[in-house]
Amino acid sequence: MGFENITIFAAFIAGLLSFISPCVLPLVPVYLGYLSGSTITGDEPPPRSEVFSHALLFVAGFTFVFVVLFGVPAGFLGGALGKAAEYLVWVGGALLIVFGLHTMGIITIPIFNLQKKMEYGQYQSPSYIRSTLVGMTFAAGWTPCIGPLLGVILTLAVQGQNVGLAMFYLFVYSMGLAVPFLITAWMLTAATSRLRKLNRYMGLIERVSGAFIVIVGVLLIT
Hints:
Radius of gyration: 18 Å
Number of helices: 9
Helix content: over 70%
Number of strands: 0
């Protein structure tokens, strides 16, 4: 498997780990309920197609922010730095090791413990525009929380020294976050009940995520 294939795989896994992180996974049913203007776990869940369509626009919102607002600057930065980008990647690799140790709970970086809460009101009139805007807000507001994993992809994006490649890496990352979210939206209550069972494994998930970040950091340095 070539380096580019490994990078693509790492980008998708980073997105998946972001989805099951302690600051995102427990709130997935809340987000879905908020987007569809109802409660997913109530006696009368909303139509599957309605929840899924709003989830698609939510995904489109955060994908736009990650790909355009994060990916384009990272690609330009890598291209502008040229050969010097390699040194920046080494620094980024060292920072990723620190971020990974934080995620594993070995050290503490306060900024990454920030948690954003969305005001949730039941039975609001659903709006496709609102679903898109909430997705964009999600990408911006939760960046500190998923920062270590997002940092992996941004570092790889800078290393690519190409805007198109940087945007592609951020797109793959977004899909890693989007696919399980869309599956949950389609399965409704069956999926949300299973996701709750993962809460008991949050400590293990954090350690695995941290180890993943550390490994990528070491690979970038070496």
